[in-house]
Structures are given as C-alpha cells and as structure tokens.
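User: Hello! My lab partner asked me to get a predicted holo structure for this protein. The small molecule is 3-isopropylmalic acid, SMILES included with the sequence. Please write out the structure tokens.
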Amino acid sequence: MEEKAYKIAVIPGDGTGPEVIREGIKVLEAVGRKFNIKFNFTFFDWGGERYLKTGETIPEGGIEELKKHDAIYLGAIGHPQVKPGILEKEILLRIRFELDQYINLRPVKLYPGVWTPIKDKGPEDIDFVVVRENTEGLYAGGGGFLRKGTPYEVAIQESINTRYGVERCIRFAFEYCRKRNKKKKVTLVGKTNVLTYAWDLWYRVFEEVGKEYPDIEKDYAHVDAVCMWFIKNPEWFDVIVTDNMFGDIITDLGAIIQGGMGIAAGGNINPNGVSMFEPIGGSAPKYTGKNVINPLAAICAGMMMLEWLGEESSAKAIEKAVIKVCRDHLKSLSAGKMGYTTSEVGDLVAKYV
Amino acid sequence: MEEKAYKIAVIPGDGTGPEVIREGIKVLEAVGRKFNIKFNFTFFDWGGERYLKTGETIPEGGIEELKKHDAIYLGAIGHPQVKPGILEKEILLRIRFELDQYINLRPVKLYPGVWTPIKDKGPEDIDFVVVRENTEGLYAGGGGFLRKGTPYEVAIQESINTRYGVERCIRFAFEYCRKRNKKKKVTLVGKTNVLTYAWDLWYRVFEEVGKEYPDIEKDYAHVDAVCMWFIKNPEWFDVIVTDNMFGDIITDLGAIIQGGMGIAAGGNINPNGVSMFEPIGGSAPKYTGKNVINPLAAICAGMMMLEWLGEESSAKAIEKAVIKVCRDHLKSLSAGKMGYTTSEVGDLVAKYV
Ligand SMILES: CC(C)[C@H](C(=O)O)[C@@H](O)C(=O)O
Ligand SMILES: CC(C)[C@H](C(=O)O)[C@@H](O)C(=O)O
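Assistant: Hello! Below are the structure tokens for the protein in complex with 3-isopropylmalic acid.
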C-alpha cells in the first residue's frame, strides 16, 4: 500500500483549543499509522495570546501560507481579554471569507450511548445535516453608525445576499443530499414572511435550482418554527440549507440535541480550495489548561477532515472508535464530568481506531 | 362593587384564529361576571379571507379605529393562499409599528402538569420572560434588490437599531425585572462578536442603563449559546432582553419548552398607548374549523391583557383555572390530542374561573 501524505495547517488558537487539537492530532496519527497516511502538520500561533503580545491577528502573508496546505485544522478562536469581534473577524471570519469557504457543514447526529437533553428521541431520530452559507448575509460586515454616542444614534447592520452566493450554497445542499442518499429531502430555513428581500431571493433560487433535482423532496420552514421542530421532531429533517446567521443559531441548537459542545464538529468548506475543520464549542476559558475538556468534538472535526480529503475508511474508523468510547466509557460528554481526562479520552479513541 | 368596562378591539384573523378567540372571549366573559368587569368587544374582519375578496388588508381609518380601544385581542394572521409577507407586514407588523407597541413580552412558564419535551426540568426551572424589541431591527423593512432576477442580483436586508428604540426596550426590561422581583437578573442576548454595529449599540446602552439598576444582576450571552441553554439550563434565566429577530427565534424555542404553541401567549406592549395580545401559534390551516385546536394560548393572551389592564385578580383566576385544566383534564396540549374539543376546553376554563 502506497503511503499518502497531507499537508495540514494547524491553528490551535485560544483557551482549550490547544488541548483538544493535541488529542485530535493524536488520533489522526494513530489512524494514519493504520491506514498508511502521513500528516505533515504546520502550526500557526494565531489567536488571543499572540494578539495581546504583538497586536497582530494574522501576520502578513498568513492567508497565502494557509493556501499551501491540503486542509486546516482549527481549535478555537476567542479570548476573554480581547474585545468581542476582533479575533472572530480578523482570524476566523477572515479565513472563511478569504479562502472562500462558502459552506459551513454541520452534521447533527446522535451517536448511540450519548445523552440527549430531549425526551423520547434516539439515534434513529437525530441524524441530519445543516448546510450554512458561510461567506455573506449578516456576516459580510456591512453597516455602520450614524451620530454614534448621541441620543440620536442609529446603528445599521446589513445582510448582503447575492444570487451567486445563494445559488452555490443551495446547489451544494442538493448535491450533498443526493450523495448522502437518506431521506432525500432538502429544507430551506428562512423568514420569507418578514425579511422579504433576502428571503425572496433565497426562495426563488431554491425553487429554481430545486427543479434540477426531481429526485429530492423540497420543503420550506420559518426559522422560528424550525427551532421548535429540532426539539419536538428532529426526525423530520435530512438536509437543511440556510443563511449564515440563521445557520449559526440553529447549528448550536443542533449541537445540543446531539449531545452538546463536547461532540459537535463542523467544516468550513471550499469545494475547490482549502477547507477548515473545527470543533464548534469555542475556547471555553473556564476549563482552559485543566485537562478536563472533551476532545471528541475536535476528534470528530479531524474525522470530517479525513472524509473531505477522500479518506473514507480512516474516517469511518475514527467514527467507530468515538462511538465505542461514548458508549462504553464516558459518564457524560460535558467538560469535567466525563470520568476521564482530556488526554485519556484521546488515548482511548487512538487505541480503538 | 362598581362595574368596570373595557373596550376591546378583536381581530380573530385567519385559520384557527376565530376558534381560539371565541373561547378566549368565553373565558373573559366568565371572569368578567365574577369580578364585575364588562367587556365591549368590537370585531374587525381583517385577514386573509377579506384580502382575497377585496384586496384590502387594513381599510382606511382602521388604525385610528384601533386607537379608540383599551386593548386589542388578536387570533392569528397568515393565510396559505396569500404570498408570505403581505398579511404579516400589512396587518400584524403594521399594527405593532403604527401603535408603537415597542415591546413584545413573552413569558416562558411551565405550568404544573404540562409536558415539556426537555429532560429533568420542571416548573421550578422554567419561569422566565423574554422582552423582545418590537418596532425596529430587521423588522423595520429596510433593504432592497439590485439587478433583481439576473445572475448578478444582490438582495439586501437591513437591521436598523436606534439609541431611542434600544434604550426604551432595555429600560423596560430592567423595570419589568424589578417589578417581577424573582431572580433579579437581566440577560442581554445578542451577537456582539460578529454584528459589531448593531450589538455594539445594544451593549453600550445595556451597560449604561444597567448602572441605574444596581439591585439587578446583568449578564450578556450570544444568541447561539442561549439556544443551547434554553434546553440545558433554562433555570439560569429571569428576564431576557433582545432585538426583534433574535427575539422571534428564541421565543418560539421558549414556547416549546413551556409546552408548545397550545399554551404560549404574548403581548405587544405600548406602555403609553394601546397594546395587543395574541396566542403565538399562528393560523394552523391544517386544523382550521375542526374544533380540535388548543385555545389555552388565546386564553392566556386574554389573561395577559387583563393583567396589563390592571385587573390582576381576574388574571390570577384565569391562570389558576388554566393550571387546573392542564393538570386534571388535558391528555396533551397538542391540537387533536387533548382528549377534548376546543369548545370543551374553553368551557372547562370558564367553569373554573
Ligand atoms: C465564533 C463565532 C464568530 C462563530 C460564528 O458566529 O460563526 C461561531 O459561533 C460558529 O458558529 O462558528
Ligand atoms: C407572523 C410573524 C410575522 C411573527 C413575527 O415574526 O414576529 C410571529 O412569528 C411572531 O413571533 O409574532
């Protein structure tokens, strides 16, 4: 068997990011030994600490460096001593935007043995994927202040939606649904009855592109109703497609029903470029450095990365090992309540792959 | 005891609206007999049916008519044969905006005996209030299209936030929290790390106004995280304040944990003008005319209306009767599964008040 090699850019980032990425790498290397895959990791120290020391978020040429890799593996961005928005916009969102990672892919899957906070639902009910647009909408940064600091201040925030951006996102959702080959249903989640510009465009494109996929059922739901259905009827969903802001909200709700931040991972995908994979839990300052955070989300992000690189057998091996650890070992997926340390969980998964 | 009289404008509206409002009025009249309150109801036939027949949403002078009343009692707005946005914007949102009902007040309270879809939480855990800004943000209607219908189309949707609008909303939340006198905590829910114009204003005003309320704890959380906490830790909340769009989303999630659309009610409040009370479940076309929809949400909207009119004893009497019906009678709060018809549920509540 020929050895394959991948160049992976690693951004451990802030808070518990480095701890979980360490375990993710441990598992990737274990699976790599088994499947004859070599990973060449390049580390980037971008994040709050560096910013506080140097004032720099991404150094000059940083984005170009990332482009030389096959994928990016990210821990977490966000630091309690840095004003909200700076690191998020100048690191995380900048990478998403400049590498044109126009899809945020979030599988919501309850593994057997994992505790969900909702009643009467099991792994057979909770298995869907959210396709979130990742490069425009309210995240585009449009807007500004008028008369800032006065009693007459106005603050505007703009959601920018382009035919180009919406279409490629919706098309991705239909293609993904076809490949996934489960319920064969795509649900557009929006707010057509109030946001009558943005969602008129989304709805028109959904109907138009949808015609090219006669084998796939199409559905539309308002974002407020969908939040209820995630809790009462998660089994209704297969593939969901939505904009950046609504996607941000509903994927966190999705995370909680699949067991929480301890397990939820996502991919920032550019199908023709460099994609980035991350646990979605954030930097969790309160658990930092204690070796108690759950690394499974980062491990699952690594699994998604392998899948995306085309390494399906090794991805499957990680998924099986994660399921085994959830079912046979962990008392809970929450930080500090697992019954194991962060490193022990990483060791277990590495042992089982 | 002197008789009090109130002029109530009633808009039964679409779908199941008329059925639930009928029961709400039954209960109001029953409680009125007991507490010597007279209601003079004026009915307005605004909604989808009228629009389809006449092309008219609110007839000329309609808003002025509403202003002559002490309160407005609304069933539901939304019709499957009318393009999304027309009735919502030209009736519901127009009333909210033109009567300057700048607060959307949504108590999230789990009554004893009511089934919640989340595990390990009871009435002692689920008891908070969402104060949603109701006259600006993404609901202001700002935005437009560029090159509509072409491959180069851009659709913009604007969130407009004013110091004036944000401040009065935040101030209302603090005042309400003080009067409520429970956990004495106000949580601002936003997205400061991405929507850095709108939420910078909100956050600054929250800090500034908050200083006037040293007796009240202040907290901030991102909207995505809050969706998780509603499910995992609803007991953390007391009063939540947020913008129009986020409020729309999180209050539906709140509705589901308090038992669903069968029970959830809200008030559109103008503290110095005419306020409007409504069940938040929508027009539910699929149950229309079947006498199976749950009228408790409309009944609770009537209760909120009484409370707001200063009729606290009669409001309390309705609440007690609702709790009794939930605990001793209904099999479920869902339409068609109550074990009683819509009218029977109204009869029961009317009997117990
Ligand atoms: C950290 C933050 C900027 C980010 C977002 O809002 O996209 C996060 O919540 C996510 O979902 O990846
Ligand atoms: C019907 C719709 C326009 C409305 C809204 O979005 O405000 C509803 O969802 C609500 O929450 O009252």
